[in-house]
Each structure stands twice: as structure tokens, then as C-alpha cells.
Fold:
Amino acid sequence: MAATTRNSVTPRPNPKMRLRWHEMSPREQLVWAVTYAQSIGVPGALAYVADRAALSLRALAIDHEDRSPEYDLARLNVVVERNEFDSWYRIAYQISHQTAGSCERISDDACAAAYERYRQSSTDFY
Structure:
């Protein structure tokens, strides 16, 4: 009897359900590789399980979500004071949300709300 301390795999592989590595996002590649490496079984079945895990992640549609730039600033652990934030935010927002003919002015209230999100999010990445 074989010991199965990790994810034991027995499903039959589906040759039509093979993801191509170069078509996956970096997050999908990571999930695929971890799932494959932590499972035990026949390589074809392992690939099938890893494909399903990557497809489940893809179904969440989180890789191409529209994020505001204050979250990226917080993630980078860059400290920006409130008086510097508004001018940076207006430019960064326009760059990250480029649309043809969009010249909307970011309000002071929108900048204040974004600064508050930046300030609160910065502790998430500390």
C-alpha cells in the first residue's frame, strides 16, 4: 500500500484540458506549479489537477482587476505625506486608467479618500 501524505491524485487526465504555460498569468503559473509539486500520482493526472486549480483561479478574474494606484504605492511601502499625495495621485490615476479622450479632473474629496485607503492599506504590507 502506497503512503499518500500529500494530495493523492486518481482522476483521469483530459488531453483537451491542457493549459499552455506561456498563456497563464504569473499567479496562475504559481498556483499550477505548487499544485503539481504537492500532489502525488501519474504526471498526466497531476497536470490535470494543476490545470483545474489554475482554471479555478482564472474564474475568480482577479488578475486583471482595475486597481487604483494607492494600493500599489502602499504595497511598495513608500511613505508619501498628505501634501505630496494629491499631485502624485492625480497623475498616477490618469496613467493607470487611460481611456481615449478622458480628461476628468480628480476632485479633492477623491484624493482624500484615496489617501485614506493608501494609509490604511500600507499596514497590510508592513
Observations:
- The chain has two domains: 7-60, 69-122.
- Residues 43-60 form the longest helix (18 residues).
- Confidence is low (pLDDT under 50) at residues 1-5.
